[in-house]
Amino acid sequence: MESTIGSLDSSVNQVFLGGQKVIIDTDPGIDDSMTILMAFQTPEVEVIGLTTIFGNVSTVDATRNALFLCEIAGRPDVQVAEGAHEPLKGGEPRIADFVHGSNGLGEIYLPPPSGKKVERSASSF
């Protein structure tokens, strides 16, 4: 029983000391952007990567937005891996640009991010 409690204490301490590593799979529109920025500021988690996919925007735009968020948050250490550009069953992806605008961030001007995506795909990240 004591070893179980000791193990539990260790797990709890790891989470609360920033030891819970997470990868966020995202299509950064305004909603996901807010979540990502909050996750960057949460001491209970350590965001180690963002993987991108189409949804609110195209996969290319999602990757650009993710890199932009890492840059403005001062988190160049967070890797960004780009996901698929079309559905698994083929066809054109459905982009919900009517929700957050064509760039996913309410049509604000975004300078090109200085960071670069990693060379491997989101699925292998």
Automatic annotation (TrEMBL):
Belongs to the IUNH family. It holds the Pfam family IU_nuc_hydro. GO terms for biological process: purine nucleoside catabolic process. Keywords: Glycosidase, Hydrolase. This is Inosine/uridine-preferring nucleoside hydrolase domain-containing protein. GO terms for cellular component: cytosol. The keyword Hydrolase applies. InterPro entries: Inosine/uridine_hydrolase_dom (IPR001910), IUNH (IPR023186), Ribo_hydro-like (IPR036452). Coiled coil: none annotated. Residues 22-122 form the Inosine/uridine-preferring nucleoside hydrolase domain. GO terms for molecular function: purine nucleosidase activity.
